Amino acid sequence: MKKESVKIVGITLKPNATPEFYSILPNLCSWLLRRKRQVVFREEDRQRISKFFKNKTIENFHFWNSKDFHNNVNMMLSMGGDGTLIGVCRRINAKIPVLGINLGRLGFITEFNKNEYFDLLADILEGKYEVTTKPLFHVSVTRKNQIQFKDYFFNDAVLAKNDIARMIYLRAEMGNDHIYNIAGDGIIISSPMGSTAYSMAAGGPIVHPDVKALILTPICPHSLIHRPFVIPDNAPITLKILPPHHSVTLTLDGQVALNIDEQDVVVINGSKMKKVSLIQNPERLYFQTIRDKFITSK
Question: Catalytic: which of 82, 151, 156, 233?
Answer without folding.
Answer: 82
